[in-house]
Amino acid sequence: MLISGKDLLQRAHEGGYAVGAFNTNNLEFTKAIIEAAEEMNAPVLVQTSMGAIEYAGHDEMGEMVRLIGEKAKVPVALHLDHGTDLGVVMRCLRKGWTSVMYDGSKLDYDENVRIAKFVVDAAHPMGVGVEAELGKIGGVEEHVNVDEKEATFTDPDEAYDFVTKTGVDSLAVAIGTAHGVYKGEPKLDFERLRIIKEKLNMPIVLHGASGVPDEAIAEAVRLGVNKINIDTELRLAFKAGISKFMAENPEAYDPRKILGAGIKAIKEVVKNKIRIFGSEGKA
């Protein structure tokens, strides 16, 4: 069933677990994510980046995820990930996304507040939840590119002020994660996370979670993270699954079998993340 991301994350906030937010790029990723969620009886967010929308087409991407999501046996939210372009955010609202992220983290504070509130005022009457980001998460991922030297951690007091002024439903915080592939093991600022959660008492989002040790993720969930983004690990699994299949079946040419190996690999990653996030059986 397709539901509002706001409702989905509020349940996670109240239940003390995190929902996996997995990025899709095509039919194979979408099927893998939702099938894995069904097998784990877990709620899930299927995320579309602006790059994925550009690749597949806005109407095509939305219709595909909505159609599969509506037929799902578990709650599914269709989420826009890192909407740095206000025009794309507004088109997603018009085209049936049930959750959007407006990412104004590169703007000055007042401008980030102003536009985030504008998005909230447009989305809430439609029943759509809004995520925003405060603080800059380092690394590179499609339309997001933040130099490690420019990455700044989220200030708890500023976060409280931001949420109060904008009315956003969830907040992505910078506590030491990074987009893309890590060069070393990340060190998360758990005390900062604890303070932010206590001050805001709302769903907290963790970006750049691909490659973070399972123990660190579990601790972040315990301290109040309710949405965790996974993208890079799915891409790597897809590539590895197909590569392994082709190495073992060099004469294969049926795309359904070739891509099917990629789907299977993605599903295993998604199911493992759901276990770690604590959302298994929470549908």
Quick rundown:
This protein has 283 residues and is an alpha/beta fold. The protein is built from eleven helices and eleven strands.
What can you see in these coordinates?
The chain is α/β, with parallel strands linked by helices and 283 residues long. The protein has a single domain (5-277), classed as TIM Barrel (Alpha-Beta Barrel). It has helices at residues 5-15, 27-40, 50-56, 58-71, 86-94, 109-123, 156-166, 190-200, 214-222, 232-248, 255-277; strands at 19-23, 44-49, 76-83, 99-102, 129-134, 138-141, 144-146, 170-173, 178-179, 204-206, 225-230. The strands form two sheets. An eight-stranded parallel β-barrel has the order 1-2-3-4-5-8-10-11, surrounded by ten helices. Helix 9 (214-222) links the parallel strand 10 and strand 11 (225-230). Helix 2 (27-40) crosses helix 11. The model is unreliable at 143-150 (pLDDT under 50).
Based on CA atoms alone, the radius of gyration comes out at 18 Å
List segments where confidence is low: pLDDT < 50 over at least 5 consecutive residues: 143-150
**Would you tell me the overall average pLDDT?**
92
The CATH architecture designation is Alpha-Beta Barrel
Give the topology string: H per helix, E per strand: HEHEHHEHEHEEEHEEHEHEHH
CATH structural class? Alpha Beta
Put simply, the count of helices is: 11
Task: Look at the helices and sheets and give the structural class.
Answer: alpha/beta
CATH fold naming = TIM Barrel
Strand content: 15-25%
How many discrete structural domains? Answer: 1
